[in-house]
């Protein structure tokens, strides 16, 4: 990775040392009952190469720099998520997770939430686990393409291979969204969706992985804002 590719991150820290950044989000991360929230911080600054300023997201060694105008609700506690689906006619995202009253589903969700909380409790494990499905030239120097979270899920007894509900949950929480619109429009479009979710419901990959990629912790907390060129199919 060339130093130039991290220009915006260096610019942020230069501004931070000079007291020229504003913190707009800060969360420690919690597991309260069945609600899991991720630790994350976000700052607003005007340095770097983005003329109108940028937000810098920080989470366990991962950084992302996003133009302010692409995240209009961040300071209210929400992020906009973008996903392109190519020429597909329907964006599929589970609704079955909205009902967890069945004791079996409740147990599976609690196991899942505890696993995520444990992953987020150690920065090294958190960083490696969010990149476990990443496989790009830029990420060859980290522990990418390990699928380590699958092994940890099986160790905890999550039925990600044989139980349909748990498998669907696992697949939904490993779908990639992006914090920037161009990724869905130009790289994975033209059909795409725009969603929003609380900033505490995302895990971010670091900037050199490209694509401003994030995943969500709880699919229930993802709200559709727009579907462009496609419909939304809530499976389950």
Question: How is this structure best described in words?
Answer:
With 236 residues, this protein is an alpha+beta fold. It has one domain. The protein contains 6 helices and 14 strands. The chain has helices at residues 7-17, 103-120, 123-130, 148-155, 164-172, 181-187; strands at 22-27, 30-32, 35-37, 40-45, 54-59, 62-67, 78-86, 90-92, 177-178, 191-198, 202-204, 213-216, 223-228, 231-233. The strands form 5 sheets. A 4-stranded antiparallel sheet has the order 1-4-5-6, covered by helices on one side. Strands 7-10-13 form a 3-stranded antiparallel sheet. A hairpin with a 2-residue loop joins strand 2 (30-32) and strand 3. The longest helix has 18 residues, at 103-120. The termini are far apart. The mean pLDDT is 85.
Q: Strands of the biggest beta sheet: in what spatial order?
A: 1-4-5-6
- Rounded mean pLDDT is 85
Number of strands: 14
Order of helices and strands: HEEEEEEEEHHHHEHEEEEE
Distance between the termini: 42 Å
């Amino acid at each position: 990775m060339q130093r130039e590719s991290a220009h915006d991150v260096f610019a942020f820290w230069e501004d931070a040392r000079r007291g020229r950044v504003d913190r707009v989000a800060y969360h420690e991360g919690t597991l309260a009952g069945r609600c899991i929230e991720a630790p994350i911080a976000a700052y607003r600054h005007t340095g770097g190469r983005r003329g109108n300023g940028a937000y810098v997201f920080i989470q366990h060694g991962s950084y992302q720099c996003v133009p302010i105008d692409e995240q209009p609700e961040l300071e209210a506690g929400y992020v906009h998520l973008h996903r392109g689906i190519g020429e597909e006619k329907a964006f599929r995202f589970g609704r079955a997770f909205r009902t967890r009253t069945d004791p079996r589903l409740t147990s599976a969700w609690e196991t899942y939430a505890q696993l995520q909380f444990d992953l987020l409790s150690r920065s090294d494990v958190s960083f490696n686990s969010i990149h476990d499905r990443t496989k790009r030239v830029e990420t060859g120097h980290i522990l990418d393409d390990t699928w380590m979270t699958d092994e940890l899920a099986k160790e905890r007894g999550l039925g990600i291979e044989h139980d349909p509900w748990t498998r669907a949950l696992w697949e939904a929480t490993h779908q990639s969204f992006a914090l920037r619109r161009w990724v869905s429009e130009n790289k994975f479009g033209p059909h795409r969706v725009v969603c929003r979710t609380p900033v505490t419901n995302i895990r971010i990959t670091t900037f050199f992985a490209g694509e401003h990629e994030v995943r969500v912790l709880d699919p229930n907390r993802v709200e559709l804002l727009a579907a462009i060129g496609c419909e939304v199919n809530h499976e389950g």
